[in-house]
Amino acid sequence: MPSLHPALAEVRRAVRQALTGLPAGSAVVVGLSGGADSLALASAVGFEAPKLGLRAASVTVDHGLQEGSDAAALTAARLAAERGLDALVVRVEVGSGGGPEAAARDARYRALGDAARDAGAAALLVAHTLDDQAETVLLGLARGSGGASLQGMAPVSDLDGVPLIRPLLGIRRATIRAACAADGLEPWEDPHNDDERFARVRTRHRVLPVLEAELGPGVAEALARTAEQLREDAEAFAEMIDETIEDIVEPAEAGIAVSVAALAANPPALRHRIIRHVVASEFHVALTRSQTLEVARLVTDWSGQGPIDLPGCRARRVGRVVEFTASGTGL
C-alpha cells in the first residue's frame, strides 16, 4: 500500500488527539466553510471519529454576503456528506455591529453554537491554523490590546456551554493545503480572504511575509509560542485571583467593595487584574487599561478624588475600601 502523505497524516493525527477522550457514542460538530482549512478538518473528522465511536456532523453557515454563497455552502455540505458527516447548511442574517468582520463572526458562532447544542454535541471543532494564531497575535500587538489579546486563541475554550476545540492550531496553512491536495479535496476560495480592506488580510498578505523575509523563517511559529506562553501566565494569574478574591471583597449597596489594603499589598499586574476581574464579574463590562489605571489610583495615589465613571458602573473610595456600584444608583 502507498504511504500516507505526511501533511494528511499530520492533520489526521491532530484531529485524533483532539477527539480522544470524548465520550463514545457522542456527537461532534465541525464548523465548515468549504475553505481549505475547514475542509481538511471535516475530512479528517469523518475519517477519525468513527474509529473512536463518535458521530460526526458538519454545519456550514451561509452569511448571504456574496453572490453564490448559497451554492458554495451546498457544495461544502456535499463534500462533507461524501466523507461520512451529517451535513447541515444554516442561513444567517448578519448585523452591522462592530463592522462587517465582527458581525459575520458573531452570527456564525451563534449559529454554530446553536447547532452544536441542538445536536447534543460533546464538542464543536473549528479550523483555525497556526497562521491564524500568528495573525491574531500580531493584530493584538498592533492595537495595544494587552495580554488577553496576545494570548490568541486557545486550543480548547467554551462557546456558551459547548466545548470549542481547535485541532489544527499547531499546523501551518501550507500543510493544510497540501493535505487537501493529497486527500483529493478542492477547497472553495472565499473572495473575502483576498480583500485587503480587512486588516487580517493585509496582515496575512503583506505584514507576515515581510517579517519572514526580513527576520528569517519561523516568525509565525514564534508568535504562536508567545501566545501559548502568555496563556500559561494568564492561567497562573487567574488561579492567584481565585485564591485571593474571596478574602478581599465584600458586598456593597448596589455593588461590591474591595479592600484598599489588599489591593495595595499586591504587585501592579495582579492589582490591575483584580480590578478588571471584579468589574467584569459584577457588571459584565471590560475596562480599558486607562480606566483600570484610574481606578488603581484610588489605591496608590489617593488624594481625595471623587468617583470615577466607568462602563456600567462607578468606582469611588470610601474609607478602607474601593466601592464599585451600578451606574444610575445615585451613590
TrEMBL record:
Enzyme type, top EC level: ligase
The entry marks the following residues as binding ATP, namely 33-38
What is the E.C. number? 6.3.4.19
In Gene Ontology terms, what is one molecular function of this protein? Answer: ATP binding
| Keywords annotated in UniProt | ATP-binding, Coiled coil, Cytoplasm, Ligase, Nucleotide-binding, tRNA processing
Q: Does the keyword Coiled coil apply?
A: yes
Q: What is the catalytic activity of this protein?
A: cytidine(34) in tRNA(Ile2) + L-lysine + ATP = lysidine(34) in tRNA(Ile2) + AMP + diphosphate + H(+)
Q: Domain comment?
A: The N-terminal region contains the highly conserved SGGXDS motif, predicted to be a P-loop motif involved in ATP binding.
| Name of the protein in its database record | tRNA(Ile)-lysidine synthase
- Species of the source: Microbacterium marinum
The beginning of the lineage is:
Bacteria, Bacillati, Actinomycetota, Actinomycetes, Micrococcales
